[in-house]
Amino acid sequence: MIHLSELHGAATHLAVVAIPLFAILYALRRAGVGGVAVEKAEPWALGACVVGVAAAGATGLLVWGQAQTELRGQSFRAGTAHFWIGIGIAVLVAVPALAHASAHWRGTRRPAARAFGALAVLAVLAVAVQGYLGGRLTYEHGVGIADAGQFAQSAVGARRLQAAMDRGVPAAVAGRAAFSAQGLGCARCHGDQAQGQRGPRLAGGIEIPDFRRVHGHGLFPARIVTDRDVATIDAWLRTLGR
Ligand code: HEC
Questions:
Q1: CB-ligand 1 contact for 186 (6 Å cutoff)
Q2: Atom 9, ligand 1: residue with shortest CA distance
Q3: Which residues neighbour 238 within 8 Å (Cβ) at sequence distance 6 or greater?
Q4: What is the pLDDT along the chain (242 residues), one digit of tens a residue?
């Protein structure tokens, strides 16, 4: 399946590079530094800004569509702010683009007003804020993460573990199943026998604070994997030799 909304990342990065580049080239030309190379590069950078912003806008609308069903109240407001800053950046880019284009068609000198420099600086700042908000929307709120990505297994694994404990399955047995690749999947990084792989050796037992420090704000939030769940996994780990 083609995920068009993922192209938002690619499109925005074009604008993220082109907008500061244009600001630098514009400043250099005004300062009379860099000669013909800067003169020639500037319209290309501005063109890349226009293409980047247009592509970011078009693909952004696809992500916006996803946000309708994926972001709750307060978080949706962050999406709205992201949207309007995007419109603002489009305006900030359109003004110098139109001025440059009209100078080109009329055969007059390219604009070099200080005001355009200020607009470019403003656009760079807006891009930074925009990127930060976009990052929060993706990495904190998880907009557009298909089928909840890696978190899906955390949720399913925790539910199964809790059901096993409620049925009275012995902790070491339930803990072992939760640790496995089919449960919470700890084994995929720490090894089937907790002997250590990408993650360190856990055989012999773990401490809940260590678990929270590494995994609490990532794959296993406390709201999904409770202290009781961790203690159950630990019951199995303690049966293994250190
Ligand atoms: C995607 C890979 C991955 C998965 C899945 C994973 N871990 Fe880890 N874990 C790591 C890595 C890598 C580290 C070491 C990170 C560090 O020390 O900064 C780590 C560290 C830890 C630590 C801290 C060890 C110490 O001595 O400080 C504990 C405890 C831990 N993991 C428990 C678990 C448990 C329990 C699970 C399953 C619920 C799990 N991990 C699933 C990769 C993973």
A1: yes
A2: 199
A3: 172, 204, 205
A4: 567 788 898 899 999 999 999 999 999 999 999 999 999 999 999 999 999 999 999 999 998 988 898 899 888 999 999 999 999 999 999 999 999 999 999 999 988 888 989 999 999 999 999 999 999 998 888 888 888 889 999 999 999 999 999 999 999 999 999 999 999 999 999 999 999 999 999 999 999 999 999 999 999 999 999 999 999 999 999 999 87
Counting from 1 in the atom list of ligand 1, the atom nearest the Cα of 229 is 38
Burial class (CB in 10 A: 0-12, 13-18, 19+), 240: middle
Residue 176 CB–ligand 1 contact under 6 Å: no
Check if 211 has its Cβ closer than 6 Å to any atom of ligand 1.
Answer: yes
pTM score of the predicted model: 0.82
Report the candidate in 197, 216, 196 with the shortest Cα–Cα distance to residue 208: 216
